[in-house]
Amino acid sequence: MRKTCNGRVLTESGAAVQSPVFSKQPGSIVYPLDAVEKNREVMFSCEAQGMPPALYRWKLNGTVLSVKSSGSHYSLSGGNLRISRLNKDHDAGTYQCLASNSFGTIVSREASLTFACEF
């Protein structure tokens, strides 16, 4: 690898490498308590650019979520976190996206999931 005069790092093949940079960060969600849908779900969006491409993890109230365990109602699509079978007591809180590659890890702004009555 070598560094160019503008600070970019290039591999031997000339490809640029870069630590992740957010192109999309999650926003807060208010979910209606009296929603009648059978499959109650929400999705937090997160996207980062980097080389090599970023791998994603999510935190809820500062604790990393387990999205790969069987029976989990959390799933990842790219960097987006889908929460199905919402449960007010377990899912309400503050979420953050973590995007990592071999050059670093970045943490998104906080996004909250709250439940409220519709009027």
Helix content: under 10%
Shape: elongated
Would you tell me which CATH topology applies?
Immunoglobulin-like
The count of helical stretches stands at 1
Poorly predicted spans: none
The biggest sheet, with number of strands, parallel, antiparallel or mixed sense and barrel status, is:
6 strands, mixed
Rg, Å, rounded:
18 Å
List how many beta strands DSSP finds.
13
* Overall tally of domains: 1
Distance between the termini: 59 Å
**What is the CATH homologous superfamily assignment?**
Immunoglobulins
Q: What is the second-level CATH architecture?
A: Sandwich
Mean of pLDDT? 87
CATH class division? Mainly Beta
Order of helices and strands: EEEEEEEEEEHEEE
Q: Which structural class matches the secondary elements?
A: mainly beta
Strand percentage, roughly?
Answer: over 45%
Key features?
mainly beta; Immunoglobulin-like; elongated; 4-stranded antiparallel sheet; 6-stranded mixed sheet; single chain; 119 residues; 13 strands
Question: What does it look like?
Answer:
There is one protein chain. With 119 residues, the protein is mostly beta strands. It has one domain: Immunoglobulins (Immunoglobulin-like), CATH 2.60.40. 3% of the residues lie in helices and 52% in strands. The chain has one helix and 13 strands; from the N terminus they run E-E-E-E-E-E-E-E-E-E-H-E-E-E. The protein has one helix at 88-91; strands spanning 2-3, 9-10, 16-24, 29-32, 41-44, 47-51, 55-60, 63-64, 74-77, 80-84, 93-101, 104-107, 111-116. Strands 4, 7, 8, 11, 12 and 13 form a six-stranded mixed beta sheet that branches. Strands 1-2-3-6 form a four-stranded antiparallel beta sheet, with no helix packed on it. A hairpin with a 2-residue loop joins strand 7 and strand 8. The protein is elongated. The protein starts with a strand and ends with a strand.
